[in-house]
Each structure stands twice: as structure tokens, then as C-alpha cells.
Amino acid sequence: MDVVAGPYSYGGSPRSVDDVEGVTWIRIRNLFVMNRLAFQMLHRIVWSCPIIVLEFDLRTLSSLLLFAVRRIRKLPVILWGHGLSRRSNSPTWVAHIRKWMAHNADAVIFYSNHGREDFIRFGLPKDKLFVAHNSIDIEHLSPAVAQSDAVRKDILFIGRLVPGKKVDLLLEGFVRAISNIPQATRLVIVGDGPEREYLQTLAKTHGISDRVLFTGEVTGPAQLGPLFAQSALSVSPGPIGLAAVHSLAYGVPLLVAVDEPHGPEVEVVVPEKTGCFFSSNDADSLAMHLVKLLAHPEMLREMGVNGRNLIQSQYGVQHMVEVFLQAFDYALRQRSEDYRNSF
Is the C or the N end of the chain the one with fewer CB within 10 Å? Predict the structure, then answer.
């Protein structure tokens, strides 16, 4: 397999491909326009290779050109992405282009069930629409998950300490709940970023420094496992993505702000089954839910078990691989049938 990608994405975030036998990273140049659009200097292999998986992202203008050329040459294309934009200000014409591309693709792989359902409503055939839930390699988490029956008492946040994550709201909610939750419960904030000093000062100002632990950046199951194992629940006051899968894979239920530009992974948060939602930007609502949930540790434990079972049954890299193989088989089989029917 050849992975054709530039070293940087929007906003300068790096993209990397691990050294794996049978996988070659073909590095290309990404040109960005005002951090909104991109044009890739595509390698010659993508114009004629037997089958390609193309990012379903209209911001990459070269992908539209590549899609059109391969359609003209009758070469298989599989689209992979979110599907429709969830942003309320997304133009209608964007949805029409996505619908046209999906209709003309040999198969489409979505990150979530919601993405697939949108295009079923557009009238596309169900059998060409697949769902490979965006996930992590949960196989490596098994040793840490085995420890998950330890005493769970903490409230956990994992993510970048930036304004958009709204960790200050989490601190405010914790302050309002602190007199009505177990005294042993701490707020554990895992991550680093430009807001760390401000948040530490905020905790000190509220007089709760002894109940808030800032760990800094922590990565890897060996380091994260013990933090999850002693956490009763995980909280996301801002947008959440893969962190939702990560938390439930460790058996830790979620408390998530309801109205945020979440990633498709938020669908793993099933109210009263794997987690709960609180009103966005509302410290009182957050505090109320913290008090209510921490007062029922058995309910939290049950949610954690439900979440872990959900991730093990439907998520993980191996599940993604299986879906991709199904999409490859479908696309190539359809091409073979079209070729035979042409005679």
C-alpha cells in the first residue's frame, strides 16, 4: 500500500505514517491558502493505480481534480471522510457537490453512522455506503483495562489546554460541586498548552489547588492506564473527538457538553448508557451532573462496562480494517461486473 500525503495538515499539524512492512509513505507538497483550502502536488501514481482511497474533503482542491480524472478514465475511487458538514453555516451547494461525488464514487466510507444515514436519505444505495468508526488501537489497552476495577474516585480531563477546550468552565463547575461530592475526589487535568498557567492560577484563586492535579502531557497506555483506572468519569466541557473512544475503551463513562462542534466519535455517548450530556457553557448544569453522577458509583461503573463493551464490539483498528476490506471488495466487484456487462 502506498500512502500519498504531505507532512503537514491545516494549521501546521503534522501527519506521519509509521514504518510498517508493505506500506510506503510517498511524501508530497501541500500548498495552503489562508488555512482554508489546500492543493497537493500529487504523485503520478495516484492517476493510474488500480484503486485509491481519497479523502472526502472539498477543501483539498487537487482531490476534486483527481476524482474527476479517475472518473473519466473509469478507474475505481473510494471516498473516506465525515460526509456532510455539521456546521450550520455550511453552504447548500457544498452538500450538492458531496452528493454528486458520493453518487459517482465506487464506494464511500464514513466515520460515523450519522454520515451514512445522511447519504441514504439522498437516495444512494445502502450497499455502497460503509461505516468505519474512527478509532484507536484498543488492543494495546488491554493490560491497563484489566486494572479498571480499582477504586474509581477522580474526575478526568484529557486534552490540549487551549481556550476552545473550555477547561476553565470545568474548573468553575468543579468549584460549585466540590462541597457535595466525595472529599477524596480530585479533578485530574491531563495535557499541556498555552492555558496551563492561567488554569493553575484559577484553581489557586478558587482555593482548590489541593483538589486539582495538573499532570502535563501524558501519553501511552502504561502512563495513562493508572489515571483512567482511578477515574469515576471523564468530562469534556468543549468539543470531543477520539477522546470519547479513548475514555470508554478504558471503561470510564463520559460527561459531555451537549452543543459543541464535536467529532463524529461523540455518537458513542449514549445518554444513561455510556454517559450523559450537560448544557453547554453552563457551570451550574455541569456541577449538578457531577454531584448526581458521583453520588451513584454503581451506575457509573455500569456505564463504564457498557462503554467498554461498545468499543470492543464496534470500534478499534481491526474493525476499521475489516470495513475497508469490505469496501475494496465491493468496489472491485462492481467494476468487474460493469466490465463484463459492457460486452
Answer: C
Strands (E) located in the chain = 2-5, 24-27, 30-33, 37-40, 52-55, 77-81, 107-110, 129-131, 154-158, 187-190, 212-216, 231-236, 254-257, 275-278
Radius of gyration over alpha carbons of the chain, in Å? 22
Largest separation between any pair of C-alpha atoms in the chain: 79
| Owner of C-alpha cell 451532573 | 289
d(CA 104, CA 98): 10
Residue 143: CB atoms within 10 Å: 10
Residue with cell 474512527: 134
Beta bridge partners of 214: 189
Q: Which residues pair with residue 236 across a beta bridge? A: 256
Q: How many Å apart are CA 47 and CA 63, to the nearest integer?
A: 11
pLDDT digits (tens, 9 = 90+) for 124-159: 999 999 999 988 777 766 555 545 556 789 999 999
**Would residue 166 be called left, alpha or beta, if left means φ above 0 and alpha means ψ between -120 and 50 degrees?**
left
CB of 179 closer than 8 Å to CB of 149: no
Look at residue 307 in the predicted model and tell me its pLDDT: 94
Contacts of 243 (CB under 8 A, 6+ apart): 158, 159, 234, 236, 265
**Interacting residues of 181 by C-beta distance below 8 A, sequence separation 6+:** 290, 291, 294, 295
Grid cell of 281 as nine digits: 457553557
